[in-house]
Structure formats: C-alpha cells, structure tokens
Design brief:
- By secondary structure, the protein is of the alpha+beta class.
- The chain contains five helices and ten strands, in the order βββαβαβααβββββα.
- Helix 2 links the parallel strand 4 (86-91) and strand 5.
- Helix 1 (61-82) packs across helix 2 (93-103) and helix 2 (93-103) crosses helix 5 (219-235).
C-alpha cells in the first residue's frame, strides 16, 4: 500500500506515513482471541487490509503474566503504527483493557460475531454527538456528596471523560445496606429507552445511584456507551 497523499510505500496497510506525516486509516478494528489478534484497518467505510498477531498462550503463573503482557504490547505497537482516530475492539477483555491502557486511543466495544461488519454498519448510522464540555463541568444536580472518597471521585471523572456523556447527576446515598466488600466498586447499568444510563457506586454498606445523561438516541446506542463506560471503569480498576 502507498500513502494516499505523497505516494510513498508503506510497510503495512494503513500505516501512518512518516514522509509526509499523514494518516492513512481513521479506524482500526481489533478482534482478540486467546492466541491471535486480527487488526483490520479502515478508511471511512473502505477496508484497507488486515494484520494478524499471534501468541503461544501460557496457562498459569508468571509465564502467563509475561505472555499476556507481551501479547498486549505487540498489539499496542501495531496500533501505534496507524495512529487512528478510533479503535473498535471485540474479544478477550483482559487483553483489550491492557491495550487500551497502553495506547490511550479512543476505544469502543463492538459485538464479537463479526466486528468488522458491526463497525461498518455503525458507520452507516447517524454518529453520536460528541460533547465538548470539560469533564469537571458535567457534574450537576442537588446532591454533591459522593461516596468512596478519592475512588468515588475517580469513578465519576472516568465516566465524565467519555465524549458521549453530557451530564452526571449524583443521587442520594443509601447507607442501609449490609455489604461486606471493602473498597469502592462502580458499575454502569443497562440503558433506558432514551439511551441514558446509571452509575452505581458501592462502598461497603453504602450505595449511590448516579444518573448519566448521554448523547445516545435510543437503548441500542445507549448500550454501546454503557459498554464503553464499564470497560473504562474496569481499566481504572474500579470494578
């Protein structure tokens, strides 16, 4: 493949051109299995090509930790070669979370049956509005107290950073539970008919339900935002 701008040959499909500093793909679709990751490069709705990365899975102990880390690192290196605007991911959540944390690109979960087709279908739909409001200005409502201290604020900030979150309205705190787990846990619930979701914070016996207003237009698109938010919270070690 040659660069679409200057015509310089590229080593792999969709690579960023280091001659004229031009991106040649705007999205990467990542499909991760236990022993193989397939990256498909897209330019709008055109498939530019694909690259496969393989690994020999280890089953336990330190060898597995090292193998998983190296596998995620190789995938991250390949994505950085492309410098895409967005990464769509399906498959092994452990590896996807590691790649997401390592590369810091905008990640979205897609169904695993045929992720490339799912992304192409999504691109034919009306895109969700991107919210430009700074994350710290998205918090509103009558209740300003958050449970969980620093971790509670971290969970709210993680959600507020999502580009399709418009507003976060903290709810009252219910301290009547009998939970025994230590540390704050956060989870985003199923979307309603308008595409909005709720963020549940649990800290010991205290529970707080926070309303999340999104730019999704229905339950289906709201579920996509929910998946993204839960992945972000898991990456932040809040689930």
């Amino acid at each position: 493949m040659d660069c679409r701008r200057c015509g310089s040959p590229l080593d792999r499909p969709g690579d960023y051109c280091l001659v004229c500093h031009t991106g040649n793909c705007d999205a990467v679709v990542l499909d991760v299995a236990e022993d193989r990751a397939t990256l498909t490069m897209l330019d709008e709705e055109t498939i530019l090509g694909e690259t496969a990365i393989t690994t020999r899975p280890e089953t336990e102990g330190r060898n597995r930790v090292i193998e998983r880390r190296n596998f995620a690192g190789l995938i991250g290196d390949e994505i950085r070669r492309k410098r895409p605007e967005t990464v769509f991911a399906a498959g092994d959540r452990e590896i996807i979370r590691a790649v997401r944390a390592d590369t810091h690109y905008e990640f979205y979960r897609v169904p695993g049956e045929d992720p490339v087709a799912a992304v192409l279908d999504r691109r034919g739909e009306r895109a969700l509005e991107v919210v430009e409001t700074p994350p710290k200005e998205k918090l509103g409502g009558r209740h300003t107290t958050l449970i969980g201290g620093r971790d509670g604020r971290k969970a709210i900030s993680t959600v507020a950073e999502h580009p399709h979150v418009k507003k976060i309205v903290p709810g009252p705190i219910d301290a009547s539970g009998t939970g025994s787990q230590s540390g704050l846990r956060a989870k985003v619930t199923r979307a309603d008919g308008n595409g909005n979701v709720r963020l549940l914070l649990r800290d010991g016996s205290s529970v707080q339900e926070n309303r999340i207003v999104t730019t999704a237009m229905n339950r289906e698109t709201g579920e996509r935002v929910r998946d993204d938010l839960n992945d972000a919270l898991a990456t932040a070690d809040l689930q």
